[in-house]
Amino acid sequence: MSTSSGDPKPVVTGYPAPLAAAAYPYHAPPPPSYYPNVAAPPPQPQYYPQPYTAAAVAPPTYNPLFLRRLLSAFVVLFLLVGLAVFIVWLVLRPRLPEIGVTSVAVSGFNLSASQQQLSADFDVNLTVHNPNRKMGIYYDHVTAAVLYGTDTISEASLAPFYQEKGNTIAVRARFVAIGEYVDADAVKGIRSDQSRGDGAVGFQVTVLAWVRFRSGAWRTRWHAMRVYCDDVPIGLKNGTTSAASGYLVGSTPKKCVANL
């Protein structure tokens, strides 16, 4: 069998050409710059926002005219209230009560000079007069005491009470002293007082009370009132340091001094 005449087929070596669909993908290169000779701009610095702080907020603004008016209103209100209280005080004119010692009875009086101790029972009666014609008086936390010089012999608490305007009431206070210490000067003073003709020993009676004046719906604040009844003469029946009883001598009532 004869072959056809013509060029022989070339010999092929190596791998066959890959198919177009099976080729490795490549990203297209970026298009060239419009100005190829101009360098690219430098990168911009990274921006970091500042954190929020209270100091960054602007302080509030105040109206000085409003503050001046508010302050003026408070000053005017204070002056008006003070003026009203002063006018009421002038109209009512509150006066302190008038207090006096009307009687004193002492029993079981005994003074030990060697031990500097005093024992006695004091029964004291006071009169309290309210001189105000338009105001009543409240008395609260009332305490009374009997002293000789600066030595307190006995103290007592009294019941609170209210006194009507222009009223006079009697207040009784009982003091019990059992072996109360007195200094050497007090012992000498009591002995000296007893050596006198009437044997009168000058004691002191004091009263401390919180008082408040009232006229209708108007009331004052509480005030501390102190009452001093100095040199209250109590006559002991003999001139020794031991006496069974004693009494108030001299004119009665023995007036006291009250102040706030």
From TrEMBL:
Domain Late embryogenesis abundant protein LEA-2 subgroup residue range list: 126-207
Alphabetized InterPro entries for the sequence: LEA_2, NDR1-like
GO cellular component terms, semicolon-separated: plasma membrane
Keywords, comma-separated and alphabetical: Membrane, Transmembrane, Transmembrane helix
Pfam family, one: LEA_2
TM stretches of this protein: 70-92
Cell compartments where the protein resides: Membrane
Protein topology in the membrane: Single-pass membrane protein
Source organism superkingdom: Eukaryota
GO biological processes: defense response to other organism
Protein name according to UniProt: Late embryogenesis abundant protein LEA-2 subgroup domain-containing protein
Gene source species: Ensete ventricosum (Abyssinian banana)
